[in-house]
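Posting for a labmate who doesn't have an account.
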Amino acid sequence: MEANDPRKKSWIDIESSSDFSIQNLPFGIFSNNGNPKRVGVAIGDYVLDLAALYDLGFLDLGKYARSHFESEYLNCMMKIGKQGTTELRNRISHLLSTDCDDLKLSTKKDVFLHKQESVTMHLPVEIGDYTDFYSSQDHARNVGTMFRDPDNALLPNWKHIPVGYHGRSSSIVLSGEPIHRPKGQMKPKDQTEPSFGPCKLLDFELEMAFVTFNGKPMGQSISTGEAEDYIFGMVIFNDWSARDIQTWEYVPLGPFLAKNFASSISPWIVTMDALEPFKVAGSNQEPKVFPYLEFDGNKNIDINLEVLIEPEGQEATCVSNSNYKYMYWNYAQQLAHHTINGCPIRVGDMMASGTISGPVPTSYGSMLEISWRGTKPVSMNDGSERKFIQDHDSVIMRAYSEKNGVRVGFGEVNSKVLPAS
C-alpha cells in the first residue's frame, strides 16, 4: 500500500485531528535527555528517532549512514536527493503501518519512539540562501490599491514575472523563539524629516516556504517540469515586516531593515510527496506567460491557513483564514524563474511564497490589509483592538491539508514580540 493511500492506518493511535497522520511523516531535528541533535519524523503525538532505527537495522536502504540521521540539520540527509528521501519516507511508512509488525512488536519502543512533549525541536535546516517572492495577486492588488492607484494597483511587471528579492537567512528562527521589535528610520506623512526609533507598525506576513535539494551546476536552469525533483518540502513561514521602516527605505532598491530582523518557521518539513494528493488548479494566468514559465498539471496546493493574535495572558483571536491555493505564481514557476539565468541553488535554500491573501477580508494575510493600513482596527477576544502587532503579543500560524479523511498538517509557528532591545 503506497505511503499516501488514504486507507493506510498506523499501529500507533493517532487522533483524527492530528496534523501528523501516517500519510504525512514530516522530517525535523530534535534532541532529548541530553543526547545530540538528530533526525526525527512526526507521527501522531510521537517523534520517531531515525538514528535509533538505523542502529536497530530498520533503515538499511543502501544509501544512508548513521551520520545522515545523527546530525544538527537535515542537510546531510537531503544531499542524498529526491529519490533517496522518497524511498526513506516509504520505508518509514511501511514500518509504521498495520501491515508491518517489525516495530509494533518491538520491545525497544522507548529507544526509537518519543513523546513530542518530551523533546526539544531545533531549526531543521542550515539555510544557505533565502528568497522571498511576492506572488499573491490579491495581496499585491490590496497593497497597490492602498499605496498607489486603485485602477492600476499591479505594477506593469507583476503578471509577467514572479517578483522576488533576496532576504537574510541568518535571522530565520524556529517557532517558539521570541523576536525583538525592530528599530530603524521612519518618515510618517505628518513629518517633514525622518526620525529614528522602534518600529510602530509591526506586522506579520502569512507565507509558506519550500526547501531545496542541491540544484544544477551554475549556468544551468531548472524547468517547471523538473522543479519538484529539487524541492524537499515546505514549512509555515512568518515573514515579519516593519511597515513604517519599509515605507521610507524601499525606494529604490526594496526592503532592507524592514525585513532582515526576523522570520519565523515551523519545525517540521512536510515533504512534497505528502502534499501530492492536495494539488489543485491555480488561477488563469493572463497575459500568457513566457515559455520557461509554462507548466503542465496542477501546481497549486490546497493548504488551509490560519493566523491568530494572542495578547499576553489572554485568549488568542483568529484574524485570518486563508489558503495557499490562492497563489497566482506557483512554486514551480518561482524556482524556474529563480534559476533561468543560471543561478545555482543549494541544499537547504529556502524560498518563501510572499504574503498569501485570498479574495475576501477574512482571508487577507497581513495586518496591513486586515486593518486596511490601520483604518479598521480589529477587535480581540479580550476587548482590546489591534491595528498592528503590539509588544508581548504572540502571532500563531497553522496550516493543514485535508481530503478523503486524511489530514496532512504542519503544526504551527508561534512567536512572541518583545520590546525593542
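Reply:
Got it, the C-alpha cells are right above this. The first helix runs from residue 50 to 55.
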